[in-house]
Amino acid sequence: MFRMLGMYSVVFFLLVLQIRGDIRQEALQNNSMFGGDMAGGISVPEITNSADGPVMAFVPNTNYKLWTGGVLYYEYDATATRNDQVLSAAIQEIHDKTCLRVYPRNGQASITSYVRITTTEPGCWSYVGMKTTGSQQLNLSVSGCWYVGTVIHELLHAFGFNHEHQRYDRNTYVTIQEANVEAGALS
Ligand SMILES: [Zn+2]
C-alpha cells in the first residue's frame, strides 16, 4: 500500500514538474508579441499580414532609447503582487555580472522614465529600451514568471536587449538552420 502511494507521489511530482515547465514556457510565448515577449520598443519590428503571410519591417521607434548611464528605475504598480525575494535576486545577478544598474524609483517625481512592474496580465513581457515619454509596463504574471532567470530576461529587454537570434543584423553573424525552426514561427 505504502509502496503504491510512494509510486503515485513520484508520478504526481513529475507531473507537477512537467506542468510547471509548461506554464513557465507558455508565459513567455504571447502570440501577439515579437519573439513572444517583446511588446514594442527600440528594435522590435512591426509585423503586418500580407497575402504571402506575416511580413516584418524594422521601423525606428523614436519613443525609445537606451537608459542614461545604464541605470534603470522601476516601481511596482499599485495592483502588483510583490515578490521582492525573486526581484532582488535578479537585480543582484545583473549587478554582479554587468555594468547595468537597477534601482527602485521610490516615487521620485523627477524620474519620469521608469519601469512599472505589473503582475495581473497574462504572460511575461516587456518593451525594449527606455520609453522617453513616461513609464513603461513590464508584466510578470503571478503564474509562470516569477523565476530569477525570467525576471532577468525581461529586465534585459527593458534595458534594450533583443533576442540574439532575432536581431536585424543576425544574418551577418550566424546562420539560421531553418530546418530546425518550428512550423509557423517567424524566423
Ligand atoms: Zn524575451
From TrEMBL:
TM regions (residue ranges): none
Tree of life domain: Eukaryota
InterPro entries per record: MetalloPept_cat_dom_sf (IPR024079), Peptidase_M12A (IPR001506), Peptidase_Metallo (IPR006026)
Keyword Protein biosynthesis set for record: no
Co-factor binding comment: Binds 1 zinc ion per subunit.
Keyword set includes Signal: yes
Keywords, in A-Z order: Hydrolase, Metal-binding, Metalloprotease, Protease, Signal, Zinc
Domain Peptidase M12A: 57-187
Pfam families according to UniProt: Astacin
Cofactor: Zn(2+)
GO-annotated molecular function: metalloendopeptidase activity; zinc ion binding
Protein name as it appears in the record: Metalloendopeptidase
Species of origin: Notodromas monacha
